Amino acid sequence: MPELPEVEVVRRGLDRGISGRRVVTVEVGHPRAVRRHVAGPDDFSALLRGRRITGARRRGKYLWLPLDSGDAVLAHLGMSGQLLVVPSDRPAEKHLHVRIGFDDDGPELRFVDQRTFGGLAIVRDGADVPEPIAHIARDPLDPEFDDESFVDAVRRRRTGVKRALLDQTLVSGIGNIYADEALWRARLHYARPTETLTRPEVRRLLGSVRDVLNDALAAGGTSFDALYVNVNGESGYFDRSLHAYGQEGRACQRCGTAIARVPFMNRSSYFCPVCQPRPRVRRAS
Ligand SMILES: [Zn+2]
Q1: Which residues are catalytic?
Q2: What one-character DSSP code corresponds to residue 258?
Q3: How does pLDDT run across 5-36, given as a tens digit for each residue?
Q4: How much distance in Å is there from the Cα of 264 to the middle of ligand 1?
Q5: Ligand 1 midpoint to CA 201 (Å)
Q6: How far is the CA of 257 from the centre of ligand 1 (A)?
Q7: What is the distance between the alpha carbons of residues 101 and 227, in angstroms, rounded to a whole number?
Q8: Element (H or E) spanning 83, and its range?
Q9: Structure pTM?
């Protein structure tokens, strides 16, 4: 599943590749790819054709393309969705579902999705923030993210700190990989009760989250999944810089202790048992 850095890499590529361009052709090859557009593929195409894409924006893991009509194309990448900006004469990808061409005959926008969990939809009046994602909190790289409100909200929760990081109504864009990496950097156990965190500890954690996300962005994202690629079809290489996630049994790069893995919310949590000691007062994680 792509996380914030991967989606931001894609957003930057789209912003460079399609901003300001006018759509002339829309081909929906697989209706499932626009199933969230309930009025159907023809309506999807009609609302998009002739419109200029004014940019590429993101909230958490969701991307949208504002249109000069005030509507927006909302993209769900799902597990395997890719938005590619490629020369229009390039052969069709095996799982090419939507193809969008521009009036300048430059590179076209393609939505490719192997597992078709993702898709595109046009949200009326969604250029500013599409309604289906308006409830999602800002992410820590958003210039309007409010640090002190976040610190207060985390300390008011009665939950484990990793659950708080994964709660999209509190902060968006942090998935399992970057939560484990940020907790390792901040030396916090994933089950640490949020109400026991001091304000400086939450601020330090937020700093670690930003460091991890920025490092991953600089590396072009994490290619933990061969399906994740940027708009040019290239993978990132942050997976070479992981300290905790996926490192079970390897030596902690700070203290040499073997990284542990435990089941967590149907997935796993990776942590250093020494640098990130289990809280003394145990509670459900
Ligand atoms: Zn350690």
Answers
A1: 2-3, 61, 267
A2: B
A3: 888 889 999 999 999 999 999 999 988 999 99
A4: 20
A5: 18
A6: 5
A7: 23
A8: strand 81-86
A9: 0.80
